[in-house]
Design the sequence.
């Protein structure tokens, strides 16, 4: 009699419709494609499909090891340099000339506007670097004309010239010996683009397509990008390293971490990026696959040595001892990190194993403070970075824990935080007493930690927020950068780290792990030491589940 | 009717003036100037700004190296698809629930429905969306968690309305892709429609109850008409008018809700694009997005006002 029956019919129809759609069997095409399609739930949209133009890890992940290759790369799992597009190289005795011999038969991708007629040669290498280097280059101003990595690393000053020796040989001339140069060439910005494609685009007068319809030599060919939705790649059958085993690769852009985990749990993605500690805990309990590598990063507490009482090394040592890092590791990182004893992570070849870890010891800290003349304590500021980063998921919480630790030795701490941009600007001005910050390395060379963070030059203008300038230390890292003998370099770095520990301009807190979650049937996934994901060896193992790849 | 158009036209012009003035002032505040102005004076620059807008030059995103209008138009169809379905859900279910409640006034059904709608009305969208995902996607496995379509369907974007595009690729996938896209729409649309649905249900109930007290309804009842006929034929048409006006306000609620909903369900629409722009300080995109969404709300309100006036003679000619 009322409207009830009608509504009930409607609801029933809708619900049964729902159930029907979901239970509907997938078509044949669909199930075949499922086997060769890999879905990676990524955390954000890339800014451009050319790693030269960007500086975010998300953009590098989407380009550097899918579409492109570099001249050199890392041996998997280490920070040792291995050949990639370059077959071999020679460094001149004075360390200023690097001559690379290119691999034969390296094919470029094609698309509807471009069919490559030749394989990789020296012109492509010269094109890729000159576009960034020379403001007169026809492609320099395309897509904004900014090359953040190239210029922030001072490569415009370092690279004097690039010469074509022969079709398959190219020579870089440097303004000074710079031993990290090979490691720099393994970074995403050094990806090699096609000069032939650039010529075609000049003919079409569509120069900007070089960055939006990318052509590279990598294992996957770019197919389509829907902004904020997905990136679709296809396997490149003629890849010089062998065709990938999967046919289609999709980056599904899912910025919310909880939702990413939900999609992963529902099987909508095969691999999930940037899981939160809580996801890893759930994954462990449920015996899911976690791929975890010690991260190439460091979180630290820097003391501003220009501000008393931090000019006194005893104060710095005392405060370092007063902090319970075990507790921080548990509460802030949920154990997804290891305690840092040096700015350089243990996976680096230059890591100093001899340097001992600072022990948490309140009594000794008090005693040191008394020796320095501060038995009644003092008040300091701790500046805590306001944003979340892999190396420090929660600086605020960390600062609060440190506040309590410091109170035990009579030091009162105030926690200070600003909006991120303001925070960095003020810290750069040196307005802080002490600051909680961190660093993600962009290449595998130890110089990438020590030079930008602790050199005298960077204390004047740069990322040395301890404002610590030690002439001996500075000389050691300079020598290390200029020597091309790896054994000598290692000795310099070992001494530098020992000196750093004595002087204690920072308390090194942690190296956070980089982790991914994978479905049980995914095998062959590799994370490069600096944290980029590589899919070219991935395949689906339909049989038994592979052994747990947890390396912790 | 002519007077009516003039009256609404004036309101429209005033809102447009206020809106563009606001975005213009905001654009002066950003880090980098979005447009280059010839004039030195504020009003002169404002007029030039309007010219730029009319010419389709809404600024240039320094982060994406693209005109922002292009980005906006790429994201817009996804939002429209979601908003339309949510609005449809809100109206159909809101009306039905409101009528059911009014029909059973004071009975347990009425009380339950009003309690439920009050809960729906005060539901934080983010939490509610997550809850729905937990139940329907993760526990029951009926619906997908997020996205617009399963990636096994490689549907090229033509119109950027997934429902249409999936039909266009029918040769390859039959209707599978279309149903899959529809399935992906359900949870986001329910999440987004919950609050407006609750509001519409409550409005329908109170409006209908008001109308049911009128003399002519008593006359109709005394003539022996059935309750069904009284409600559907006589009462509803008059009860609908205030609801129509309220629906205009719902559009602005939906537009603010769509930002959160798109974020939760990784829905590649304007909301997700705007949030990204905010987090990256892409001022050009933020302004264009705000301007476009506000224009949309104004246009919707205007259309609904006109419709309400058309349906209600009393509004047509103000005394």
Sequence:
């Amino acid at each position: 009699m009322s409207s009830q029956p009608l509504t009930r019919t409607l609801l029933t129809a809708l619900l049964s419709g729902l159930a029907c759609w979901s239970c509907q069997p997938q078509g044949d095409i669909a199930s075949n494609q499922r086997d060769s399609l890999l879905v990676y739930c990524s955390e954000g949209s890339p800014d451009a499909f050319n790693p030269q133009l960007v500086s975010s890890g998300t953009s590098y992940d989407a380009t550097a090891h899918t579409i492109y290759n570099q001249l050199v790369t890392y041996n998997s799992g280490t920070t040792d340099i291995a050949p990639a597009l370059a077959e071999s190289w020679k460094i001149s005795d004075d360390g200023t000339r690097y001559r690379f011999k290119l691999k034969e038969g390296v094919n470029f991708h094609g698309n509807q506007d471009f069919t490559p007629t030749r394989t990789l040669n020296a012109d492509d290498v010269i094109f890729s670097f000159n576009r960034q280097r020379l403001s007169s280059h026809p492609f320099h101003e395309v897509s904004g004309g900014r090359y953040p990595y190239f210029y922030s690393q001072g490569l415009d000053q370092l690279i004097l010239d690039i010469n074509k020796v022969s079709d398959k040989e190219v020579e870089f001339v440097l303004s000074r010996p710079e031993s990290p140069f090979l490691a720099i060439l393994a970074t995403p910005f050094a990806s090699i683009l096609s000069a032939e494609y650039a010529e075609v685009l000049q003919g079409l007068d569509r120069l900007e397509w070089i960055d939006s319809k990318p052509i590279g030599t990598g294992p996957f060919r770019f197919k389509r990008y829907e902004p904020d939705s997905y990136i679709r790649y296809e396997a490149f059958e003629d890849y010089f390293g062998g065709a990938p085993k999967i046919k289609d690769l999709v980056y599904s852009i899912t910025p919310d971490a909880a939702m990413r985990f939900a999609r992963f749990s529902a099987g909508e993605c095969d691999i999930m990026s940037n899981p939160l500690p809580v996801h890893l805990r759930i994954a462990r309990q449920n015996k899911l696959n976690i791929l975890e590598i010690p991260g190439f990063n460091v979180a630290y507490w820097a003391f501003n040595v220009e501000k008393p009482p931090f000019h006194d090394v005893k104060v710095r040592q005392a405060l370092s001892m007063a902090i319970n890092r075990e507790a921080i590791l548990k509460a802030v990182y949920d154990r997804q990190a290891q305690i840092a004893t040096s700015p350089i992570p243990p996976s680096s070849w230059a890591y100093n194993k001899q340097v001992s870890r600072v022990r948490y010891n309140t009594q000794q800290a008090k005693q040191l403070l008394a020796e320095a003349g501060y038995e009644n304590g003092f008040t300091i500021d701790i500046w805590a970075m306001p944003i979340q980063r892999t190396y420090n998921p929660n600086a605020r919480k960390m600062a609060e824990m440190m506040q309590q630790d410091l109170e035990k030795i009579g030091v009162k701490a105030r926690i200070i935080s600003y909006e991120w941009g303001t925070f960095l600007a003020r810290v750069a001005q040196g307005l802080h007493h002490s600051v909680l910050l961190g660093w993600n390395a962009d290449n595998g060379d130890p110089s990438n930690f020590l030079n930008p963070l602790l050199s005298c030059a960077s204390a004047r203008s740069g990322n040395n927020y301890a404002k610590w300038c030690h002439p001996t230390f500075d000389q050691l890292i300079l020598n290390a950068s200029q020597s091309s003998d790896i054994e000598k370099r290692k000795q310099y770095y070992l001494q530098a780290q020992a000196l750093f520990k004595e002087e204690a301009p920072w308390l090194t807190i942690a190296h956070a792990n980089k982790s991914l979650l994978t479905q049980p049937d995914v095998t062959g996934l590799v994370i490069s030491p600096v944290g980029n994901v590589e899919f070219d060896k991935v395949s689906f193992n339909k049989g038994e589940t592979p052994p747990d790849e947890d390396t912790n | 009717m002519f007077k009516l158009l003039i009256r609404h036209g004036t309101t429209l012009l005033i809102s447009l003036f206020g809106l563009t003035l606001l975005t213009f002032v905001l654009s002066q505040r950003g880090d980098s100037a979005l447009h280059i102005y010839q004039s030195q004076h504020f009003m002169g620059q404002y007029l030039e700004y309007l010219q730029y807008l009319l010419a389709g030059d809404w600024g240039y995103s320094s982060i994406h190296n693209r005109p922002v209008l292009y980005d906006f138009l790429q994201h817009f169809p996804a939002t429209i698809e979601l908003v339309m379905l949510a609005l449809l859900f809100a109206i159909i279910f809101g009306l039905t629930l409101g009528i059911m409640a009014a029909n059973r006034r004071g009975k347990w059904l009425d009380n339950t429905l009003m309690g439920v709608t009050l809960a729906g009305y005060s539901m934080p969208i983010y939490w509610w969306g997550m809850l729905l995902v937990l139940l329907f996607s993760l526990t029951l496995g009926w619906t997908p968690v997020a996205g617009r379509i399963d990636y096994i369907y490689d549907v090229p974007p033509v119109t950027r309305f997934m429902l249409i595009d999936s039909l266009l690729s029918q040769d390859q996938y039959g209707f599978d892709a279309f149903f899959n896209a529809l399935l992906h729409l359900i949870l986001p649309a329910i999440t987004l429609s919950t609050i407006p649905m609750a509001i519409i249900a409550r409005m329908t109930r109170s409006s209908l109850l008001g109308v049911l007290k009128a003399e002519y309804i008593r006359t109709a009842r005394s003539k022996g008409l059935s309750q069904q006929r009284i409600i559907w034929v006589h009462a509803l048409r008059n009860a609908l008018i205030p609801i129509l006006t309220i629906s205009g306000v719902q559009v602005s609620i939906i537009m603010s809700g769509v930002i959160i909903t798109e974020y939760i369900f990784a829905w590649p629409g304007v909301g997700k694009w705007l949030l990204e722009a905010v987090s990256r300080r892409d001022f050009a995109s933020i302004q264009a997005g705000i301007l476009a969404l506000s224009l949309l709300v104004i246009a919707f309100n205007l259309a609904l006002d006109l419709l309400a006036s058309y349906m209600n003679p009393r509004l047509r000619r103000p005394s």
Notes: Chain B touches chain A through 54 residues (CB under 8 Å). Chain B has one domain: 71-316. Chain B has a mean pLDDT of 86. The radius of gyration of chain B is 23 Å.
